[in-house]
Amino acid sequence: MSLRALLESTPVGTRGAVDPIPCLTQDADLWFSDSPGEVEVAKRLCRDCPVRHDCLADAIERREAAGVWGGELFLAGVVVPFKRRPGRPPATAATRVAGHYADTVPLVLRRPAPSTTEVSS
Fold first, then answer.
1. Which helix (H) or strand (E) holds 66?
2. What is the pLDDT of residues 24-78, one digit of tens each?
3. Which of 16, 54, 57, 62 has the most CB atoms around its CB within 10 Å?
4. Calpha distance 97→27 (Å, rounded)
5. Which residues contact 73 (CB under 8 A, 6 or more apart)?
6. Strand order in the sheet with 66-69
7. 33 with 78: CB under 8 angstroms?
8. Side-chain half-sphere exposure of 86, counting CA atoms within 13 A
């Protein structure tokens, strides 16, 4: 049974009575948020959803472009484990340390500067 058929067969008054469907009872923007934290909240809310597996199967079948469907995050039509913050990724500890100590490398280990001798005519 498709998700749409399942939802349509459930009377509106009982849709949250026993097993609430989070995307119908919470703010819908949560499932399409730009905030990584809000996306994780939406994924957690999906964990106990009674239609989670049908929702995910239908999203895969429809090739959903974006959003949280069945507890999984879709970006550009692909399931990804988490949403990155916008902008440049943070530097790792290794690159921060390497950059910090770059000026303290002994001169003998550095490449020699190019020669600037002039050729006389």
1. strand 66-69
2. 999 989 999 999 999 999 999 999 999 999 999 999 999 999 999 999 999 988 8
3. 54
4. 43
5. 39, 43, 67, 79, 80, 81, 82, 83
6. 66-69, 72-75, 78-80
7. no
8. 3
DSSP string, 18-49: SS--HHHHS-GGGGG-S-HHHHHHHHHHHTT-
| b (16+ CB within 10 A) / e for 19-34 | eebbbeeeeeebbebe
Contact 12, 60 (CB under 8 A): no
Cα angle at 57 between 3 and 24, to 5 degrees?
Answer: 40
d(CA 98, CA 92): 10
Look at the pTM and tell me if it is higher than 0.70: no
**Can you read off the two tokens belonging to residue 25?**
């009872």
Helix (H) or strand (E) holding 78: strand 78-80
Taking residues 93-115, what's their average pLDDT?
Answer: 54
